[in-house]
Specification:
CATH class of the domain at 141-286 and 314-445: Alpha Beta
CATH architecture of the domain at 141-286 and 314-445: 3-Layer(aba) Sandwich
Oligomer: single chain
Largest sheet: 8 strands, mixed
Radius of gyration: 46 Å
Order of helices and strands: HHHHHHHEHEHEHEEEHEEEHEEEEHEHH
Helix content: 25-40%
Distance between the termini: 148 Å
Number of strands: 14
Strand order of the largest sheet: 3-2-1-4-7-10-14-12
Strand content: 15-25%
Shape: elongated
Number of helices: 15
Structural class: alpha/beta
Amino acid sequence: MGKKKDKKGESATSGPAEGNDVEAQDSSPTESTLPQVPATGSGSFEVTAEPTPPESIHSARSDPKTIRTPPRGPRPPRGTSHDRTPRSSWEHRGRGPLKVIVAAVLLVAVAGIVMEFTMFCSPYRAIYGTCDPLRKTTMARPIEVVVTGAGGKTGGHVFRKMLASPETFAPLGIVRTYASKVALVAATGASNSQVTVIDLAGPYGRTALTSVLAGYKALVIGTSAKVKPTGGTDPVTKRPMLGFPDGQPYMVDWLGQRQQIDAAKAAGVPHVVICSSMGGTNATHMLNSFGREARSMKSRGMLWWKKRSVKYSVGGGILWWKRKAEKYLVDSGIDYTIVHPGGLLDESGGRRSLLVGVDDKLMEGPARTIPREDVAEILLQSVLHKEFRNLSFDLVSRPDSGAKVATDYVELLQSLQGASNDYSLGVIPDHDAEIVEAEAEYATVQ
């Protein structure tokens, strides 16, 4: 019996000394590791091996360091009960979905950069033929501009040029009659929603224009009274009589433009551009005589024998009323650009070198004219570039020499050296002159 017990003790004490630690720790306690209790009646018992505490059996599972540290030695085959190698979330979830997400994010980022660069550069490619990222006049969306007088010649050129650059401008043309709208839509290919009919000099012109201007970034005023033959011959000059049958300058160039300026201010439009005319410093300029009429009236004396006939003139004076509207804009507090072109020519633009000046000094030189298309281009550039803001200047062109014409319009302003037209020069009609014109206009309507 003793020998048998020794053999059992040897078998109990001579367990596996080598092998995987995790395998030994994970195995459940067997019969050989338990104490041998003698049968009933025996006076003593012999413990052949120390029992392993239960907490030590599971210590490998409860210790976080053991879980994170993979075991040394050969890894047991998968599918066995001893395959308890810890895995990271990367291994569990796989790399495929993460790669797809990263690739999608990168693709969206690259597409956004390309689109932004294209939108930033497109106005400069259209104007300059290249992209200059240092300029800060381009906006992410087209500039919304209202062009009044779009049915006329110069205003029509501005409207067409803006329509030709939809990535830069979103123009709205204003005309006076429905017939003008139909003609403008047919000539330019604009949609009906891009042209609106408003009588700007009428009693509801300001209200209607204010509602239209909401949200727009600029207003280009291209309205002007038009000189036309009125029939007959001037007895002094022997030339055809010229006048303003479609509206006197007092109504169109003063009241009409004043209502446009008031509407822009009420609607919060930040920039107003006016196309005016040179010659405003000369009170006796020939253009002021067109449409001028001599009249007479009895003075308002208390006694009939003291009443006498008073002679006066009404109508015409187009440069005077234009200058009054310009001064009104300068004093309004809105950012402005006022362009005084010389004699307007109906020929193609982009072929002549342009000159700028102030206070009609350019009229002393040989260059006194300019194509309408070149004027329209300057008005368009005034909306694009902040360097044109709060300036009033004259504009003419040299004769067409066939040489290449410079298109850096910002550099064109450098010759001004910060100068602007002086509105203390010339004639600006006062309140009394305005009353006379208003009474004459009222008598004509009656």
